[in-house]
Write a structure and sequence with these properties.
A hairpin with a 6-residue loop joins strand 4 and strand 5. The chain has a three-stranded antiparallel sheet with strand order 1-4-5, with no helix packed on it. A two-stranded antiparallel ribbon has the order 2-3. It has two domains: 118 residues, no CATH class; 88 residues, no CATH class. Helices cover 32% and strands 11% of the residues. It is α+β, with helices and mostly antiparallel strands. It comes from Corallococcus coralloides (strain ATCC 25202 / DSM 2259 / NBRC 100086 / M2) (Myxococcus coralloides).
């Protein structure tokens, strides 16, 4: 018998977003670890915000949103916030109900400095590492050092001459994705820098390869469990 689409949807639903997430989904274990680490940071969050005024977006949701953007390769915070409006998996991971509105992408830029000022990212990392150590998943006897080029969230279009003044720049035809013509121009770290992320460096793997936008860094993973135990940016002054 042929099934036909229902012309009228269900008016009320007793299901929660988490009911749609499979029991064996890997994000379930990630959520448990992240929630435990963030609970330990609650006193720090209290110091970050005023005791009066309009309630902010919970910092726990902002930090867990960064995890989702990394896991699912969200190209931008704007795109992530759009997906958050209809993605049940994302809503469940952030402890949001069906009626909760998605927050605006500007929330990230408004709160990023506050999170950096209180060293929240590093404390979050150390809290998760503490869970791994308590579970016996790490060892201080064996480790290795890995040099990596971490792809940055900065466009090649954001690289401008360092000596260029704002008065000399023409208004972009599209603020979100302006048209840029680099034909015939030579760009290097000695002469150009990213306007959106000054720490990004231009690099390529070999002659004739395309330029990439990495952040050089060093990681210290455990040799046995292959878990990252520390990470830090590493810069080298070069004109290439």
């Amino acid at each position: 018998m042929r099934g036909r689409p229902k012309q009228q949807t269900t008016l009320f639903s007793l299901r929660m977003p988490g009911d749609r997430v499979p029991a064996g989904h890997p994000l379930r274990r990630v959520k448990d670890m992240a929630d435990a680490a963030l609970a330990a940071l609650s006193p720090t969050f209290d110091k970050m915000y005023s005791g009066t005024g309009r309630p902010s977006i919970p910092p726990e949701q902002l930090l867990k949103s960064c995890l989702l953007m990394a896991f699912y390769s969200a190209r931008s915070e704007r795109l992530f916030c759009e997906q958050l409006d209809y993605n049940l998996l994302f809503r469940w991971f952030l402890d949001m109900g069906m009626e909760d509105a998605s927050f605006d992408h500007s929330t990230f830029s408004q709160n990023r400095d506050r999170l950096l000022e209180h060293d929240v990212a590093r404390r979050f990392f150390l809290a998760v590492m503490g869970q791994a150590q308590s579970a016996g998943l790490t060892s201080s006897e064996h480790f290795s050092v890995d040099g990596s080029l971490i792809e940055a969230w900065a466009s090649l279009k954001s690289f401008r001459p360092k000596d260029e003044k704002d008065d000399n720049q023409e208004p972009p035809d599209d603020k979100g994705n302006p048209t840029v013509n680099f034909h015939g121009q030579k760009r290097g770290n000695a002469t150009h820098a990213s306007t959106t992320d000054p720490e990004v460096r231009l690099a390529r793997k070999g002659s004739g390869k395309e330029a990439r936008r990495p952040k050089p860094g060093a990681g210290r993973p455990g040799a046995r469990a292959a878990s990252l135990k520390s990470a830090r940016p590493r810069y080298r002054r070069t004109g290439r």
